[in-house]
Every structure is written in structure tokens, then in C-alpha cells.
Model the fold of this input.
Amino acid sequence: MTTVYRNLALFIKAGILRRTSIAEDSGAWYEHIWAQNHHDHLVCSRCGKRIEFSYQAIEILQEAVAKEYGFTLESHYLELIGLCPDCRNNDGTQGEA
Done:
């Protein structure tokens, strides 16, 4: 098991994988990023469902914020965490934000 985790760290350093942050009780999630287009995620906090999305306005705003604070962005990832439609419907909270 130690070898697996050691190799994960090497893959991250090489830019092949990225560890994403997810709910504390779900453990680690690794994503293949080598030769992949950039995207962000919607993550359900209840069932763990992950939806990949790209939204150009978010990318533009991130660049504007970085510029305003004098940062040069090297990388980023964005995860929006909430309830997916299935979990929301099962909870009786449909339509609430």
C-alpha cells in the first residue's frame, strides 16, 4: 500500500494526476489531468456525485481577481459543493438554494 501512495505523489508532482478536495468522510479523490482540457467540478455532499464543467466566465473572473491582487496564476481547481438534484428531491428540499 505504501508503494501505491508513494507513486500517487510522484504522479502528482509529474502533472499526471491531481488530488481534489472532497468531503472529509469520503477520502481522497485523484483525477487524471495529463493532456486533458481544464474543467471544474460540482460535487454532491451527500452521494459524492461529481459533474465536470467548464464555464469561461469563471476563468475570466479568476484571472481578473489574480491581476487585481498582483498574482500570476500557475494553476487552480474549483469545486462547488452542494446537493445534486437526486439527493435534493429525495430530501424534499427541491427548489431551495
